[in-house]
Amino acid sequence: MKQILFAGLLSLLFLTCDNDKNQYTINGTAKGYEDGTKVILQGISERGEEELKDTAIINDEKFMMKGSVAHPEVNFLKVGKSSNMLTFMLENSDIDITINKENIIASEITGSATQDDMDEFQSGFKAIIDKSREVVLDMRNTDHRTEKEKRDSLSKIIKKYGDEILALPLQFVQKNNDSYFSLNLVGLEANKPTFDVKRFKAAFDNFTPELKASPKGIEISKKLDSLYTEYKKVEHLDIGKIAPNFEATTPKGKTISLDAIKGKVTIIDFWAAWCKPCRMENPKVVKLYNDYKSEGLEIIGVSLDGAPNQENPMKAWIDAIEEDQLTWHQVSNLDYFSGPIAQLYHINAIPATYILDANGSIVAKNLRGELLRKKVEELLYN
Fold this sequence. Notes:
The chain contains 12 helices and 15 strands. It has helices spanning 2-21, 113-140, 148-175, 180-189, 197-205, 209-213, 215-234, 258-261, 276-292, 313-324, 340-344, 369-381; strands at 24-29, 38-44, 50-57, 62-67, 73-79, 86-90, 94-98, 108-110, 247-249, 255-257, 265-271, 297-303, 329-332, 352-356, 362-365.
């Protein structure tokens, strides 16, 4: 009888331990907050959107939340009416959070093992911000009219720091292939339009089998596969790739090709008579062309006229060329976004540009105004 009772108690003890491992408890300290202040816990849905997970009320400068997660994941804590949120790693453990009322980002978090990985990532991010702060301040204090050389030099330094920040997530996941924070970081980055699916997928493939087999790993794997499939459709348009050739008809009925007109620098300019932003940009492009056509700049305009609401797209196209004084090469299939060139270059919005070097390689995309001018000058003279 005693042996049966002992076995029952032992089983109950193991069951209790398992239950503890399968839930989290957030013990919050919120000094300086009034009783009744609301605390909101938010997660991220599979679609990359914020979703409500729990709420609590501060009482005597304390609050508590309990629940469970299938795996460690990025969550956000919002306190009171402030729009600022604390980002942290939530996992099934006892987590102590001491809220910093003056700066919620500086709040203290203990008890979450994956939080250490997140702290390491954020410290790397902070180190770059700290390095750039003095340069940014110096830039603000320079006169754009009298200190152009200094501003150009500072701009290059600021861009370098910006590139370091953009590279940080990929570097972290490549280095930490056994971290649930790395897994979450891939998921967060995948929602950004600048996501480098090719490199992140390679980093994910190098994750530990345990990480990839987790529910979150399976979710991220499916997302990466989907994004990679879409990427393969536009891979030929990557920076460094030779711009795919095309040919189309000019307003005078002559057929010309991209390969036939390429110069030392070539701009493929997607525009249309009906596109107001394109027409507003045209005077700057006219000046750019007039300044550098003798140096080897070529432009080929690809019109996306042929919109359903255009009565006479050919006339609208020719009139716009004359009105805006566009003296460079112009072609069009007059087939709106369904035209073969627009499809080849996956154009879904205009204005859009591709900038090519003397070899016909794509070196930049969608530059306008001063940025476009600087890139042309760089390619012509460096």
